[in-house]
Amino acid sequence: MEISPTNYFYCNDGSVFKSIDEFMSALKTMGEQTFHHHVSPQRNDFAIWIRHVFHEEQLAEALEKAKERAAMLTELDKFFHPPAQVRVEREVPIEEKLKLKLIELRKKISEKRKHGGYTKIAELKLMNVPSKIKLFKATQDNNEIAKIETVFNEVEEDLKIEYP
Question: Does 164 have pLDDT greater than 70?
Answer without folding.
Answer: no
